Amino acid sequence: MTPSNLDRRTFIQAVATGAGAVGIGKIASGQETASGEGSWIQPKSTILFQGDSITDAGRQRDSASVPNKQPGLGNGYAWMAASQLLVAHSDDQLKIFNRGISGNKVFQLANRWDADCLQIKPDVLSILIGVNDIWHRRNGKYDGTIATYRKDYDALLARTVDKLPNVKLVVCEPFLLECGVIDESWWPEFNPFREASREIAEKFGARFVAFQDMFNEAVQYAPPEYWARDGVHPSPYGAQLMAGEWIRVVNGSDADFSARSR
Asked: Domain SGNH hydrolase-type esterase, which positions (predicted)?
């Protein structure tokens, strides 16, 4: 898909109205969006969002044990996705949790995995992790490498499927936008983290949410600062775009951003 296929107004409308990226490709062609064919969201599903500050998004820890409540789900894409799911599946008794923690890297997920994942026993587990693994290395607070990321992530998912053999995994691509603290010097080091997340998703049969590909398309219609002022943490518009794309992937829709960008 190119800008000639989808003008800026249509793109922004899709985000602002809550459609997000769920139907962008089909909005342009006049077709309906995916209606749930192949969806992983089933009645009585427990859904868990995991990750770092992008997932955390200011959630209140003292509300974390109560599913489906905005304070415990934060103000970011996890809450926006959850709210859309809870409308679309109002009779399905979904339970949606957020356990993202700002600053986390993969090994820190592993350190709290028993309490913050395995005990919750999610039917659908979504993980977005990776930007701190490079950011904290660049600022001298972490000495992990891409090899560390691969090894730790692989071990975390292997441990997860061993304890929860029926869990459905959603691996989200870490992303950057070139604005704020991010400049072109980040890409040579960051791109291998993106590729590693995709390879890990394929290995474990996870659905892959290509957030970087999505934002690469988004900046054709609005500048990077519109979607993430500091280049890392999404604006409300960026978070809504992420929520829509996440739902589209989990619903099993085809013609994704990743495929269109290749």
From this structure: 51-241
Residues 6 or more apart whose CB falls under 8 angstroms from that of 108 comprise: 101
Q: What is the reported pLDDT for 260?
A: 41
DSSP letter assigned to residue 115: I
Contact call for residues 113 and 156 (beta carbons, < 8 A) = yes
Query: Tokens 């926006």 sit at which residue?
Result: 80
Q: What is the mean pLDDT of residues 55-78?
A: 94
Question: In terms of CATH architecture, what is 8-261?
Answer: 3-Layer(aba) Sandwich (3.40)
CB 256 within 8 A of CB 248: yes
pTM across the whole model: 0.86
Strand partners, 171: 127, 208
d(Cα 226, Cα 223) in Å, to the nearest integer? 6
Q: For the residues 174-189, what does the mean pLDDT come to?
A: 95
Question: Can you point out the beta strands (E) in the chain?
Answer: 46-51, 95-98, 124-128, 168-172, 207-209
Q: Reply yes or no on whether the pLDDT at 50 is more than 80.
A: yes
CB-count burial class (<10 Å; 0-12, 13-18, 19+) for 213: buried
In eight-state DSSP terms, residue 235 is P
